[in-house]
Design a protein that fits this description.
The protein is mainly beta. The chain is built from two helices and 27 strands. A hairpin with a 2-residue loop joins β3 and β4.
């Protein structure tokens, strides 16, 4: 019996000691609450946020962040107004970073920010039709000095092409190795950047010779879909609602925007084109192009191309619209699709 009691006391001592040694978490001390919490917000909104101090812990200061962006600070737990003006859209974390007793505690709350504008709806008018190789599974399309550069996909059939857009003649065709599935492309500083789909690898080519000069990797984004650039930043889609911002010198990912309308997110963002300060984005399987504000991800317009496929001979269900090129002509785009036999010059008109 004495041995049993001794073991019991020892076990209790170890248990209580382990409880005492357990580190105190942020949620043991604090909680974050939003007054009149709503399901979604817009950049026009603001809300009042409060830190609840369960243990009356003395604090030094509180810093508020929206994801990694600092938005406010306070020396107390008083109510703080958080403005969402100029914030990126999507699911965001409101974080309170609390400094107390030489420690730092983080508590957070999720909010969803939608666009505050309803997208305009556009249609198109066909101006010209040009021949296009129906064996080209188009993934990327971009003009440079009136020459059309094209990236095509499918394993064992992917390529980078330099073409005459008016005749369909392929001046030069650089095939990819069989293990790579070609995706979007863009041209910047006399270099061509081409994505691959699930291989997490991009290729760099000399613009004049189409000789491969290097490669780059994706880091956080899991797949490669579309590319475009504005001369300062390269933008990359990955098949989700995200468009990543790449450093044009290192190709490192430096954050992203998420594509949202005033009601929902837009998934399956595909081939991209930079047009007069906006990102034009193919939406995979939708035969539509979203006009996106690159600052916050808001969809400001949608171009409906659902009837364009009717002008393509012997098209199949999976041979969808994919390929936007801009040549500097106001309201004019050049568009095609996967294995389409035509490239279309179209005028964009508001409905």
């Amino acid at each position: 019996m004495k041995i049993y009691k001794l073991l019991l006391v020892t076990a209790l001592t170890v248990f209580l000691g382990s409880c005492e040694d357990k580190p105190i978490s942020a949620t043991d001390l604090f909680d974050l609450s939003i007054k009149d919490l709503k399901k979604t917000y817009t950049p026009n909104d603001s809300f009042i946020i409060t830190v609840n101090n369960y243990k009356n812990t003395a604090i030094d200061s509180v810093v508020y962040l929206l994801n990694n962006d600092r938005i406010s600070s306070s020396s107390s737990f008083s109510e703080t107004i958080i403005s969402l003006k100029n914030q990126k859209l999507g699911n965001r974390s409101v974080i309170a970073k609390i400094y107390a007793d030489g420690n730092t505690y983080n508590i957070s709350k999720k909010v969803t920010i939608l666009s505050n504008i309803k997208p305009k709806v556009y249609s198109y008018k066909i101006l010209e039709e040009y021949p296009h190789d129906n064996q080209a599974y188009t993934q990327g399309l971009e003009f440079f000095n009136n020459i059309l550069y094209e990236s095509t996909g499918q394993y064992k059939n992917s390529s980078l092409r330099k073409t005459n857009f008016e005749t369909g003649e392929v001046y030069k065709n650089v095939p990819l190795e069989d293990a790579f599935f070609g995706e979007g492309l863009t041209i910047h500083n006399n270099k061509i950047y081409q994505l691959t789909w699930q291989e997490k690898t991009g290729f760099i080519y000399d613009l004049q010779t189409l000789e491969k000069t290097g490669t780059f990797v994706y880091n956080e984004s899991k797949e490669g879909w579309g590319l475009c650039n504005n001369g300062k930043t390269i933008y990359k889609s990955d098949g989700t609602q995200k468009i990543w911002k790449l450093n044009p010198n290192t190709l490192a990912e430096e954050g992203f925007i998420e594509i949202y309308t005033n009601t929902s997110k837009i998934k399956s963002v595909n081939e991209l084109e930079w047009v007069e300060g906006k990102i034009y984005a193919n939406i995979y399987l939708k035969d539509a192009v979203a006009i996106v504000n690159p600052a916050n991800g808001a969809v400001e317009g949608v171009i409906d191309f659902t009837t364009l496929k009717n002008h393509v001979a012997d098209h199949k269900e999976d041979e969808v619209l994919n390929g936007i090129a801009y040549k500097g002509e106001p309201n004019i785009l050049y568009v095609t699709g996967k294995n389409w036999d035509k490239l279309f010059k179209v005028e964009i008109v508001e409905q």
